[in-house]
């Protein structure tokens, strides 16, 4: 084989490299032997190159002999013709090929004369004569080549280049010293700061300098996905004699519209990784004028609960998407069962009695029942449906080997668990491997978008649709989105709840979508985060602070300002100018006062943060201290300490101060926030739930994720105070507490006791 390949002009190194690729070397061997039988043992290098490229680039090997025939008859002579031939056979999957149409598309028999090349080059040079004379040899000669090639598609590229060089030399004469000097590069105009995009592209945890909106990333041909009805143009897509007819029927149903689906299992709460899937599936449909189904994969009744169905739809709609239709895999149980019978009749499935433990892993022993008669499997499958087998005593398995080496995946198993929608009708339930592609087929999905770990199931996806002769969608994979310092596994979150480490699935320290909503993350921030991560094939593992940055951007625009004090210190103004409270107007958004104001009371007793007062002043300290006055934000007054009151332990419990209007006093070093006639509230301050980046990694956390819990992940401030402007707030309403951070009203709030969750601090903690 080595001699065979070096005999067509391959170097020995290239020939050895080719031999390491079993599929390529088999095709190339077939091509070379066919060419030798027609042309003899000695093949010139040009023919050898065409044969190699045909074998290496051909998607469907059944067309190899057809293409080699044109090469050995000298009807395909150039790589350009071969590229056109390969494109033609990949886009015309039906047999037999229309040879006349094929030859027209590949330029077979087209003879381009030297005179035609000379005339074409002459015409192109004439069009650019003025620029050529001005720029001489600094002119882009590739432009001349390209335009000449566009006029004579099948002309030889080298001949065109020689003709261009000859005619340019004739026009300009030999190169001068000035022609040999390098053309100075034009300085690139730097964009003004205002033109720079605020958003940042995030790759592998690093922030780049630009990003596009999610819809821009997903629109049109940005992802190189196939157009509806052109599934067969996708690499690896299997074409059968019925494919084109099925695609025609598919287009009649969809009208050429893009159709996607988001297919969660209703056995847990959605997390941040699902947010990317939601944005990708719904976003791709929206960006391309299509529709997206929300389909519950409810094939495992043991783990499914109604609360999960409700929460999933709630989160999809919270992120801003409306499903075209809400469907369930169970909607199609009757059809799936009918197809399972047909799969058995066609010899593609059988009833097996191996135990679950026996068929686990990638190298289980072959099933001794794989070749049992079709009639026997039909009877046994019916017995499975009637409940004559116990759980684990029988399964229906499909006859195929998956890409990851897994053999004969299970299609149906016995489960004596009532289904929340079908009740006791079924005691056999289909698996994901069987259900997923067939539900996609029933709903005429055009693009079945899933995460990268499902790539190993792509071949079984195509196989099953084609085994049943039903419409076959195309599966496309993208990279998962993971976050550091957290766990998202349903099993691990349940352990956290059971051990009391978190309260429930919506505990604000988790990264489930319900938890993020409760903590106060706006849906726009989550969508922006997904856009910044981008639609990547590689898995993205991100730092939480990048999501927090997205939240700050949105909340800065959305969250009205209020004032709150977490650790109150009483301040009595001894010379308050009036006997009753004043009303102070506070802008909801100080940078844009057109967005309104709210009123807060201001009277002789106010409360400030304990940390905003010190008895002794350090260098650089600018807040309140004896001899160092401060301004009260928005009030128009400056206060100066006159007396410090302490309890028996020496702790400061009250300050007596005097006030002066700010327009007649010297400007203080700082202005601090305050509250007067405040509302009592509870404030919950959150930090990371885990101490290490990868709490599930045994090398990082040998004791397991439960040993890595951060003891300071939650601090509850029971006696915080907040100004009365928030009195009418409802759960999930968001505010910026000035100088403290962004906060959201928790559903635990009740009359007389508001509860706020801190979403993020105003600025990123340098420690993170």
TrEMBL record:
It catalyses: tRNA(Gln) + L-glutamine + ATP = L-glutaminyl-tRNA(Gln) + AMP + diphosphate. Residues 671-746 form the tRNA synthetases class I (E and Q) anti-codon binding domain. Residues 179-198 are annotated as: Disordered. GO terms for biological process: glutaminyl-tRNA aminoacylation. It is found in: Cytoplasm, Cytosol. It comes from the Eukaryota. GO terms for cellular component: aminoacyl-tRNA synthetase multienzyme complex; cytosol. One of its GO terms (molecular function) is glutamine-tRNA ligase activity. Gene3D superfamilies: 1.10.10.2420, Glutaminyl-tRNA synthetase, non-specific RNA binding region part 1, domain 1, HUPs, Ribosomal Protein L25, Chain P. Signal peptide: none annotated. Residues 257-556 form the Glutamyl/glutaminyl-tRNA synthetase class Ib catalytic domain. Residues 4-157, 160-248 form the Glutaminyl-tRNA synthetase class Ib non-specific RNA-binding domain. Keywords: Acetylation, Aminoacyl-tRNA synthetase, ATP-binding, Cytoplasm, Ligase, Nucleotide-binding, Phosphoprotein, Protein biosynthesis. It is an enzyme of class 6 (ligase). InterPro entries: aa-tRNA-synth_I_CS, Gln-tRNA-synth, Gln-tRNA-synth_Ib_RNA-bd_2, Gln-tRNA-synth_Ib_RNA-bd_N, Gln-tRNA-synth_Ib_RNA-bd_N_1, Gln-tRNA-synth_Ib_RNA-bd_N_2, Gln/Glu-tRNA_Ligase, Glu/Gln-tRNA-synth. Residues 559-659 form the Glutamyl/glutaminyl-tRNA synthetase class Ib anti-codon binding domain. Its EC number is 6.1.1.18. Belongs to the class-I aminoacyl-tRNA synthetase family. Glutamine--tRNA ligase. Plays a critical role in brain development. PANTHER family: GLUTAMINE--TRNA LIGASE, GLUTAMINE-TRNA LIGASE. Monomer. Part of a multisubunit complex that groups tRNA ligases for Arg (RARS1), Asp (DARS1), Gln (QARS1), Ile (IARS1), Leu (LARS1), Lys (KARS1), Met (MARS1) the bifunctional ligase for Glu and Pro (EPRS1) and the auxiliary subunits AIMP1/p43, AIMP2/p38 and EEF1E1/p18. Interacts with RARS1. Part of a complex composed of RARS1, QARS1 and AIMP1. NCBIfam families: glnS. This is Glutamine--tRNA ligase. The gene is Qars.
